[in-house]
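Collaborator request, handled under Task 6.
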Amino acid sequence: MRLLTLLASLTLALPCLAQTEIGSPTINRALNDSASGFLYLYLGGTQPSTAPGEIVEWSFFDDDGSTNGQRVTPFLCEQTGPSSWTVVAVGTSRASTASGVQTHPFATLVGNAVMERSKSYTVGFIAMGYTLNGTTLTPTSSSSGVVDFDGYNNFSDRWAYAQAPLALGLILGTGGAPLDSMGSGGRIYSARFRVQRVVSVPGCPPPTNLLVSREAALVIGAPFTLELRASNISNGAYLLWIGFPAVTRQSSCGLPLPGLGDFLIFPGSQITLVTGAINSRAVPIPLAVPNDSSLTGAVLMFQALTADLAIPRVPLELTNGLWAMLVR
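Structure tokens returned to the collaborator:
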């Protein structure tokens, strides 16, 4: 079915900010870095990336036998000033196989890889391995030349560099570790990160019946299927709403509705999208997204109300919410 007349009236034109990938093409490049212990921060054309979203996967290119087994660690930065970025999540270190393009889950080691609304982000990596001791990142190895790059003095898809120990809360740029302080700037590294553009917001407290997405993004002009996962309902019904998010953080609470749960959609913006029966543990809810590029970048919230018809009092419960950004 069609995804709302409401969407047709949205004119949020954010063509550069709604991408599902951040970084540069993972292709074979001419150079390998001889330096070790440097952090590389992406400042090219596919950043800053706006929320909602979650870094779920990343790729890099390395096909040099001398780097086989050397480790690389990805990280996510929030832009906290015009020329400063703060590390907010560090992913699991990966050993290169020197086999070309290598793709791995981000697998957050410390921090939060969910990008909150009203903030901007970019990504980076360091050619070093890390483990987590309690809440402290501990380096286990230092490498050089792992990820292929082009340069120098090519700022068309810039990666900046800094020399500092990787840590949660580390500031890169103004007020922190200087960027490109030794010259030799203008590099393009073969590293790219994938953003999942549908993010669950649990609410307070987390519900028992869950709304999930079978797709990683709400793509304009494409089918979009939600799934209602009912924990203990075999004969019930649901009402699915869509509207504007009332929360800005994944951990935020919405409007408490006694006996129902936490309503996460801005009051007055919600409209009924679809109703249906709950007759299995996983109920698909197929939707269709209008083929209208002017919707790019619009952020919406989906949430459902469930009813258990097998119980005389028909108990009602709100599900979690799903942030979804419309992308092309």
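The cover message to the collaborator said: "Helices lie at 5-8. The chain has two domains: 5-12+197-327, 21-196. Please let us know whether this matches your experimental observations."
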